[in-house]
Amino acid sequence: MRRWGMLRFATLVAALVLAIGAGFWFLGNAVKSEFRGPDPVTVAQASLQGLREQNRLSTFAARYVAVVTSKQNRLGMTAEKTLIMPGMVRYEVDLAKLQQKSLSWDAANKRLTIVLPPLEVVGPDVDLDGIREFNPGGLLMRFTDVEKQLDAANRKSGQQELIRQARAPMPVKLAKDATRRAIERSFAMPLKAAGLDAKVAVFFPDEQPTEDWDRTRAPEDVLANKW
Length: 227
Description:
By secondary structure, the chain is an alpha+beta fold. It has one domain. The chain contains 6 helices and 7 strands; from the N terminus they run ααββββββαααβα. Strands 1, 2, 5 and 6 form a 4-stranded antiparallel sheet that branches. Strands 3-4-7 form a 3-stranded mixed sheet, covered by helices on one side. A hairpin with a 2-residue loop joins strand 1 (about 55-75) and strand 2. Helix 2 packs across helix 5 (about 170-195). The chain is rod-shaped, with a radius of gyration of 32 Å. Mean pLDDT is about 75; it is low at about 1-35 and about 210-225. It comes from Sphingomonas agrestis.
């Protein structure tokens, strides 16, 4: 009986030691987390969710002017009409397409890398009040429906010309740079507010990332504690 009592006492002591040890382990982890500060991946994911809720981001717009001319030949005569069409084009990114895999965290270099969806050219929004038309007149326009055909051809060509100008390398570069700066601020400011000294690099799908790209870890991999 006495031996059974000693065994029970030893079991209780062992359980008490384990409980105290577990308490110190949890306390140590809590203190460690407190000193380590916020998790950059968690902060980045919160920023990502906030951006996705905005749906579309437009940080750059430009005004272009298309000058196009159409001709029609009938009955040995020529009809010609020139259209001057101004229009505004916006450059947007569909933020709803951002995903967890769009972000990569490089812990060694303290760098967050974001790959954006492709830049989209939206428009053109034609300035109807600014449209000007010129034609030398002629019998062909007066007695046939050729003018309607010239107008339709000019409107179509004018919109195509506006889009062609909008997709030129220089305005696309300006639009990408403006979008990049906006996204960088959207992630850098929350990281800085959380006391995290992290760099933010933003790329588009058609751009070449740096050499460290392949060594970065996606947020879902960080959370799963794997490479």
